[in-house]
Amino acid sequence: MVRIDIISVLPELIESPFNASIIKRAIEKKIIEVNFHNLKDFASNKRKQVDDYQFGGGSGMVMMIEPIKKCIDLLKSKRSYKEVIYMTPDGNMLNQQIANKLSIDGNLIILCGHYKGVDQRVRDELITMEISIGDYVLSGGELPAAVLCDSIIRLIPGVLGDETSALSDSFQDGMLAPPVYTRPANFEDLEVPKVLLSGNKAKIDEWREEKAEERTKKLRPDIFN
Length: 225
Ligand code: ADE
Known about the structure:
Number of strands: 9
Structural class: alpha/beta
Number of helices: 7
Order of helices and strands: EHHEEEHEHEHEHEEH
CATH topology of the largest domain: Alpha/beta knot
Helix content: 25-40%
Bound molecules: adenine
C-alpha cells in the first residue's frame, strides 16, 4: 500500500478533498493511506511557534527548520520514502509525466509551505523534489498538495473502476482527449457524430485519434509532437 504523509500548519485546509469520491474510495479500499501532520505538534516552544522573522530583514515570516526536521525524521524512522516533496510556486511545474512517476510504488512525504516559505536549509537538506502547480501564488501549499495527490492517486492501479480510463486521459500520450458524447443522440437538432453510433470499433478509434490530434494542434500546439 502506498502511504502519503502531508505536513502542514493548517491540516484542516487539506483534509476535505480526501473525504469524497475517488480518493475516499481508494482510502476505503486500502489502496492508499493518507496521513496529516500538524507542524505545530513538532514545535519546541510552548507558543507552538513554527515560523520566525527573516534574517536580513524583509516582510513575511519564514518556516523554521527545526519542527520540519523533527517531523520528517520521525516519519523516516518508521518507513522509507521515495520522495520528500515541497509544494512551492518556484518548483518544477506539475504535469502528467510527474504524476505518472509518483504514482508508481513508493511512499511520499509532502510538505506544504506557508508565509514566505521555508528556511532554505530545509530545501537544501531535506527535500528531494519541489513541485509547483502553476505560475501563480496561493496562500499556502495545501491546495497544491491536494491537487498533486489527486493527480497521483487516481493513477494507482485499482483506484479507478475502469482500468483503461486513466490511460485515455488528456496528456497521457502527449495528446488532449477527443470529444465525448452521451444520450440523447439528437438534442434540439444538435447531433452526435454518426461514426460514434456506427458500432464500428476501428472507425471509432480512427475518428477519436483524428479528433484528439485536431484538438491538440488547435488548443495546445506546444505539446503536439
Ligand atoms: N504554494 C503557493 N503557491 C503555489 C503553487 N502555485 N504551487 C505549489 N505550491 C504553492
